Amino acid sequence: MTQGTKIASDGLKGHVFEVSLADLQNNEVAFCKFKLITEDVQGKNCLTNFHGMDLTRDKMCSMVKKWQTMIEAHIDVKTTDGYLLRLFCVSFTKKHTNQIHITSYGKHQQVLQIRYKIMEIREVQTIDLKEAVNKLIPDSIGKDIEKAFKMFEKPKFEFGKLMELNEAGAKVEWADGYEPPVQ
After folding, report:
1. 86 phi and psi angles, rounded to 5 deg
2. E strands within the chain?
3. For 18-21, which contacts have Cβ atoms below 8 Å and span 24 or more sequence positions?
4. Which residue intervals of 78-151 are DSSP H helices?
5. What is the largest distance, in Å, between two alpha-carbon atoms of the chain?
6. Of 128, 130, 121, nearest to 91 (Cα)?
7. Which of 154, 155, 146, 144 lies closest to 96, judged by CA?
8. Which residue windows are transmembrane per the record (predicted)?
9. Are 77 and 124 in contact (CB under 8 A)?
10. Which of 37, 82, 130, 147 could pair with 51 as two cysteines, CB 3.0-4.6 Å apart?
11. What pLDDT digit, counting tens, does each position of 23-71 carry?
């Protein structure tokens, strides 16, 4: 028997809403979902705060492909205004341009180095929660992580090393007047 004794605003406090980024900003990025928690109610308006961000299942499934390594990392970071955030990062190895092999798997040591680099980028520690959310929306932290991995590409071509590798090989002798067909 609680008729008339409960206040409706108390029932809304602590309620978590899940809203698409497309609904919040009128853009076409519908795969980002934001969780907002109701902190206070003023009249007919709910005052919300950031509670979490996630990608939709179809976006996650479209990113996962065969013939590549998926690298996952998570890190706990405290913002300047005292919020403790747990950030999850999912990255994938990618093919080089003109790569012949179908697969682009990462070796175990490379995966560890990439995971370490992901954990090194702690941009969220130096900013408050509002700025952190604004950095997550255009994926600028993800682009910074991608720039940090440029060192994992193959080293620069050195003609001397190529000659060292080919010194031990035997020269192929062709019959007189024979030229291989041009393809």
Report:
1. -110, 115
2. 16-20, 32-42, 45-55, 70-78, 84-92
3. 21/137
4. 108-120, 129-136, 140-148
5. 107
6. 121
7. 154
8. none
9. yes
10. 37
11. 887 777 788 888 888 888 888 888 888 888 888 899 888 888 999 999 9
Q: Please tell me the distance from the alpha carbon of residue 93 to that of residue 159, in angstroms, as a whole number.
A: 28
Cβ within 8 Å of residue 101, ≥6 positions away: none
Residue 175 has pLDDT above 80, yes or no: no
Q: Is the four-CA dihedral 57, 58, 61, 62 of positive or negative sign? A: negative
Q: How far is CA 135 from the centre of its chain?
A: 13
* The predicted structure's pLDDT at residue 144: 66
- How far apart (Å, rounded) are the C-alpha atoms in residues 69 and 59? 17
- Side by side, which strands form the sheet with 32-42? 16-20, 32-42, 45-55
No. of helices (H) and no. of strands (E), the chain: 7, 5
Kindly give the pairing relationship between strand 32-42 and strand 16-20. antiparallel
Q: Give the other-Cβ count within 10 Å of 55's Cβ.
A: 15
Task: Quote the pLDDT of residue 167.
Answer: 55
| Torsion sign across C-alpha atoms 172, 173, 175, 179 | positive
Angstrom distance (rounded) from CA 1 to CA 177: 106
Encoding tokens for residue 62? 């479209």
Question: Where along the chain do its domains lie?
Answer: 11-59, 64-153
Q: How far apart are CA 44 and CA 9, in angstroms?
A: 9
